Amino acid sequence: QKEVEQNSGPLSVPEGAIASLNCTYSDRVSQSFFWYRQYSGKSPELIMSIYSNGDKEDGRFTAQLNKASQYVSLLIRDSQPSDSATYLCAVYNFNKFYFGSGTKLNVKP
Amino acid sequence: GAVVSQHPSWVICKSGTSVKIECRSLDFQATTMFWYRQFPKQSLMLMATSNEGSKATYEQGVEKDKFLINHASLTLSTLTVTSAHPEDSSFYICSARDRAGKRGAGYEQYFGPGTRLTVT
Lengths: 109, 120
Hints:
The complex is a heterodimer of chains A (about 110) and B (about 120).
Chain A: E1 4-6, E2 11-14, E3 19-25, E4 32-38, E5 45-50, E6 54-58, E7 61-66, E8 71-76, E9 85-93, E10 96-99, E11 103-108
Chain B: E1 4-7, E2 10-13, E3 19-25, E4 32-38, E5 45-51, E6 57-58, E7 67-73, E8 76-81, E9 90-97, E10 109-111, E11 115-119
Parallel strand pairs in B: 2-11
Antiparallel strand pairs in B: 1-3, 3-8, 4-5, 4-9, 5-6, 7-8, 9-10, 9-11
C-alpha cells in the first residue's frame, strides 16, 4: 500500500468552476499535509499546508483535512486555465516527505 | 521569500564523467535538504535526506557511492553524480526546510527550480 494515494486524472473542469482534488494517506500518526502544484517541466511549488482538522483557506484555494478518515483535499474556486497543472499531495512523517503520484488538472477555457 | 536556487539549471555530460549540482537556500537557513529525481511523467522520487554537518541518509536502492551528497552549511547542499551513465539522465530537484519555521509550522519544504541532466 502506498503511503499517499491520489487519482492520476486527468480531471477536466470548465473555466470558473470548482476543481476538487483528493488524497488519502495510510499512516494514522501523520500530522503535516501539503499541496504542491507542478507545471510541466518545472519543479513543484508549495500552495498550501494544513495541520489541523477542518478547512484552511488562502485566496481561491481551500485545503480540507479529515484525520479520522485519513483524507485531505484541495478545492480551487473560480478555476483558471493557468491552474492547469499536476497537483501533488504530500505528507510529512519522521523527517521525510511522502508524495502522491499527482493529479493532472485541465481547466478548459 | 523562501527561495531555493539550483545550479546549473541544465547540464549535458559525457558518459563516465561526474557532475556536481548545487542547491542553496537564499533567504533562510535549512538544516535539512532533500534531493529528488523525477523521470518524465512520473512523480518525485526521494533520493536522500541531507542534514547539515552529518552524513546524508539515502533511500533504499540509491547508491550512495554514485550520488555523493555534501551539506556543508545551513544554506548549501551539493549532489555529485559520479561516473554518470545515460540511465542517470533525469530531472534532479532539491528542496529545503525552513529551519526557523517562520513561514509556517516549520515543516514546509521549498523546492529549487531543478537541474535537467542529460548524459550522452
